[in-house]
């Protein structure tokens, strides 16, 4: 027997050898030396050594204006493997065959170790079958094109962890030894560290399954030590992990105080991710999962296969493949029948339970249980990190279902052999051959995964397997030899509005620009990770180049610390069509340093150091382009920076304020026709809680304006309840009661408005009120017009009329302020009360003015200035490219400025046309918008006497595809309406898609008769902002000279000499509150340093700045403090690692508990 | 003729006896099941319960209750679930994935019920 066992060990060794050899051969053949994997979302560096070095610092200053790296220390293990693999493969890039081989082999070995633990319980053939199943499947290979090391690492750790758990539960491992081993495993294979937390979804599912399974076992055996022991093991493992990972946890902790991190988990993040979760989950049905399918990348809609996917159509459309796919659930279910009572049944049941639990999580928001997942997603703090449920939880599903399939297959083999062994001697050999045949069958089904063209393809025609062009390699080598290139390099062409991706004609495509993974230079481009303010500056710089404005380009480059330009003519970015090369060569302030074929490197003749002193600032209200123009070369401090005002008073040389159009608030208010949905109605016993909450809310509101708003909001809700009750034919007394309360609330609101007449001149308050009462009025009017209303009791009808009358009274109160829609459209009203009492100039950005319909800008008919009842007409001049109004003299009292316009009709009639619709041909009026600008909003007014017709309003741009590639007319924006007459035309607010060039407006009937339309008028909705500039009190003394030395990306030494006056020290890197400036001889604890926020503020919307009041000579340190925490954490981790090894070494000293 | 002979050979009395014996043996279970089902169908009309007790859910609950209360052999349930994949396969092949998905949802729920039953009842018995 023992001899037989040893013989089988030899089989396992041979199996392992040939398994690894197989992986070696395929990875070598997939990725020959001249090829590399790069791009997409891989993060695979093309210079692995340099990239690894960047991971040793908490700040990465190579990317745009610098980026916090403190949450990425955990990725050191992954990038160390990248680097080691590049040494083995003899290439600089990480996307090499050796890296691929290492990760596939690690998964193979770990899955074998796991399966080997179960060989006595399940079957001795199980370790032979399980590894190929769990590695060669669509889930693992869907991400192999980007070599998702983090995911593979977690899977390796999970296999080893499960092996430890089973050994531990069998009491073959001491709790300390098991915990030490488990924490060591998760430290080595950490899924990229804290940034890879969502990848732990699979592990969470397995932990949940373990807890449920052993809790049930404890219940059955009435021995709760089973579950307690397991929980203790988890806690000890967690504790070990905290200590072992101190090197990545400690630097991350201060960042938790930063709102940016918490925002990722907050309500806004949840709301914005909901649609994405739905999209990912749309085809992850249980039946697809049972068949090992449902991968989101395979589908473009619910059960609609994405034809652009390389092989999805084969597995979802080919009948044979479909039939084979149903064998997997059959084998899965058979495992429950085959399992023998006892230990085998326990193991099978545990994995069946894991399959069931993981399927719930993998399916995400897909019905029927998707509502539960959504509940978790919206209500469990932190759960929102699982916004791609399939990819985050499917690991647990595939491990557990492969266990069941491999087990069933093993039992088949055993039963097959038991049938024929009576007559056959070579039983084991035959069984092994059958195992091999089953693996071959599995591989045959997954044959597409072995085709190198498919493996690295992420959609048809797009692959991450690339051959780096010679000029790119030459450029990389050249930059490595150039130690003087330290300032920022601007990438040309920009990524462009539409994609914000970086693509090249030789195949590279990624949202992450190529230079990030290629170069050790600081590069700057308009990529997705920039803040709004950073993007505004970079776009301005690109615009200055596109317009050939050299002076502006030099100014902006100096401000942003850009010293070089890298021009890439092999780029496929959206703006690459422009001839940048010609523009760059025309700039005299630009010098070409070196040419590398399609890449050219330029130097800008500008002087700007990363750390400098400035002695004055411009205080600005926002970051609009006109403010940047008026500020000139001055650095900007936005007055929303929440800094104490007195701190900067002496540094202002000017203040720029914005005055927004007040009447535009009401003109461009949201028009909401729908009533809010209500679930609990007044006849429900639960309505008591609703009423109580309503009363409490009203009691707690203090300001009259908010009280009016609350009263009207409750009326809105009650009207919705009344409409619902009316439909459900609920008793009249409940409806009357609601109407009476609504009437009472409206009376209260009117009373408050009449008492506080200041509200009646407040456009913002008027907007808020109109947005609430318009849907109430519209819905009640609609109700009154229905036959059903006539059947209602007299009391209901009476109170409905009274409510409607009260609503009219509110509109009447605002009549003097609001006037007619035409009045609002033509007159733009501004309140200038906050201007100082002296003469002022006001400026307007010409780009904010409306189009005149003839290619120009529409100027106001008149500008009336009303101060304290005294009216004065003003003129508009042009000043440095902006409009200027002079002679505004502020006096105490109400100051109103009104711009009056004669707005043109922008509708251009293009006649009629018969268009094809899926429902048949229809006759349409066709038109265009004159001077169309996709960034503007338009109001379309359609007048028609015929109210009973249905008119289709369609906006179609030439750029968009027709419906499902057919010739049918399809607008991205399409709606139907019944005309509302001539005096009150139907109004539609049209906000075009940002990428539209020249959309066509169609007004169609439903047949070949033209719709009856009397007039179509298109107006532009606009709200220009007035800007005032106030000169500061301070002169402009010269700032002191600052010398600095860069020690590392996280530390600078700064010398200040002969400083006499306070000044501002500017550090031209992205603002982060953890950058600290302190004197060299200052003794401060690390905690004190982190807490201290004195003097540190944001300049230009992104850069760090401090007020320095030190006089004379002084030495300073500018430091990014998470780096110090990394050093402390590394020491803690090292000590913990030694302790873990000691525990493992002395494992036999203590017996099992 | 052969079929008629076959039918004649079936000992209906014996089957009847076996069914009656099973019913007698499980009389309390059958009563409990009847009671629970009556309660379930009654609650279908109660306010708030009617919001979520849709036909699909009721069907699943009835199946689950039958499996649990009548203590149906798990192997038999699993076998029936395996057979349920045949209509799924058929629906996928004829291009009706929504129907396959619908059946798949029931299979999943009953699969969970079977596992829980195995964990709680079958193992307890052993």
Task: Give the helix/strand layout.
The complex is a heterodimer of chains A (1153) and B (126).
Chain A: H1 2-30, E1 36-37, H2 48-54, E2 59-60, E3 67-68, H3 76-89, H4 97-117, H5 126-135, H6 138-141, H7 149-169, H8 175-188, H9 201-221, H10 225-244, H11 246-252, H12 259-265, H13 267-281, H14 286-290, E4 299-301, E5 304-305, H15 312-317, H16 319-325, H17 327-338, H18 343-362, H19 370-379, H20 389-420, H21 427-445, H22 452-455, E6 457-459, E7 462-463, E8 465-466, H23 470-481, E9 488-492, E10 502-503, E11 509-510, H24 514-518, E12 523-524, H25 532-546, H26 550-560, E13 562-568, H27 580-586, E14 590-596, E15 599-604, E16 611-614, E17 617-620, H28 625-631, E18 636-638, E19 652-659, H29 663-667, H30 687-700, H31 704-727, H32 732-755, H33 763-784, H34 787-790, H35 794-818, H36 821-826, E20 827-831, E21 839-844, E22 862-867, E23 870-874, E24 877-879, E25 882-889, E26 895-900, E27 907-917, E28 920-929, E29 937-944, E30 951-956, E31 973-977, E32 981-990, E33 1000-1004, E34 1015-1021, E35 1026-1031, E36 1042-1048, E37 1051-1059, E38 1063-1070, E39 1075-1079, H37 1086-1091, E40 1096-1099, E41 1103-1108, E42 1112-1120, H38 1122-1145
Chain B: H1 2-9, H2 12-25, H3 27-43, H4 49-52, H5 55-69, H6 74-93, H7 97-125
